[in-house]
Amino acid sequence: MIAQDILDESNAAVSTDHDADYAALGDHLARRGIDIAAIAGQVAGYGVAVPSWGVGTGGTRFARFPGKGEPRHIFDKLADCGVINQLTRATPSVSLHVPWDDAPAADLLAAGEAAGLSFDAMNSNTFQDQPDQPYSYKFGSLSHTDAATRAQAVEHNLHCIELGQAIGSKALTVWIGDGSNFPGQSNFTKQFERYLASASEIYNSLPADWSLFTEHKMYEPAFYSTVVQDWGTNLMIAQHLGPKAKCLVDLGHHAPNVNIEMIVARLIHAGKLGGFHFNDSKYGDDDLDTAAIDPYRLFLVFNELVEAETDPAFDPAHMLDQSHNVTDPIESLMSSAMEVQRAYAQALLVDRVALAGYQESNDALMASRTLKVAFRTDVDPILAEARRSRGGAIDPIAAYRLSGYRARVAAERPEVSGAGGGIV
Ligand SMILES: [Mn+2]
Asked: The Xylose isomerase-like TIM barrel domain covers which part of the protein (predicted)?
């Protein structure tokens, strides 16, 4: 973790400016009838889970260029995730990926507590083969033509549930790489029916207070078809399985220009929005940092979420899911968590009474402008105040750089070979 005196020093350097900016924004929002303290309180209570795999350097199918001080195992990853939450106070939980993060539950619990973190959704992995695994997933897992391979994939998911129960998780996220690369390679209907039968076995083993999130993705690693290719198939799965099954929306798993905020609205209507994997993209599943390219789209997604928040039972899971190839992963994850909070804060500023009026009277221009007024508000002082009020950093990136954390862990953690490709 970062030493308290470093954090204090970092905050002291910018606290006078921050106080002035927060007061000025407070005056501005008061003229719009908005209480800045109430917004800051809501933002402070809003968290997004960090993926354990996000703190390692990612890669492409061409190459991976490891950074300094790469985490060696789940305990290093939890330490890094602890720093992210210490400075941002926006990431109170970690989402584990099994078997990458497999470890005794007692050890995970102790390390989580030391880092000040709880455990979010468990992620199973049947998209790559593990050492000593009897059957290969080369031609699929939950939808494989071979019953023994499907049973092995189901069994792995049950193990994830078992480990998750022991560490306080309440959800299982299932994403499969199953699909096909050639027209005719797979019988679409039979393949989907095999998937549903396998998913039902997992669903039937879910604890009563757990959720099952299924995640769609239009392509990759299969490039002609995937079994769970879009939100329509995902919704069919959730409806087939039952009330504990819901759809996970990964922002990068759609075709370019797809109206994701509208998909969000439709899934909310169906009571099947399970949660999000936040990231950004330009061409496909690029796994770029959240809001790096299109912050307005992220805002529009949150506009739908804030609209739905009036239902107290509405509680989707929020997680970052991105790949860091050219940045320090800790800095990218802190920055992305802040971008998620920014979109949430901006969506809270939307004048919903005015918006509803413009919608009713078909005033398209003023309806659009109402959203833009909220989106264009610089909410940085609100985010900073939310962090500071909970013991975090006014400027997390500056505090992190001041701390020398990366150099310190690089001295403890051996250099990793850069050979080989592969997404991490
Ligand atoms: Mn994802």
From this structure: 93-286
